[in-house]
Amino acid sequence: MPNLDDYLTIKEAAAFLGVSPNTLRSWGSSGKLPEHRNPINGYRLFKIADLEELLARIESSRSSGSGQRQQPK
Questions:
Q1: d(C-alpha 25, C-alpha 20), whole Å
Q2: What pTM does this model have?
Q3: In order of start, what are the domains of the chain with their CATH numbers?
C-alpha cells in the first residue's frame, strides 16, 4: 500500500497549485495531471512529486519566454 503522506487531497492540491478543485478534476480526467485514488474511499489523490513537477514545468516555460505576452503595437 502506498504511503498516503506522499499525497494530497484534491482540496489540498488545489491550494498547493493555486487553482480550483474543478480545474484539478478536469486536468486529472484529461490526463494532464496524474490522479490516484484512495484505496479505502476512492477519493482523488495527487502525488506531491507530480504537483512539484508541474510547477517546475510551468516555471521553466515562463523563464524560457514562451509564456510571456506580447506587447500590443
A1: 9
A2: 0.78
A3: 4-56 (1.10.1660.10)
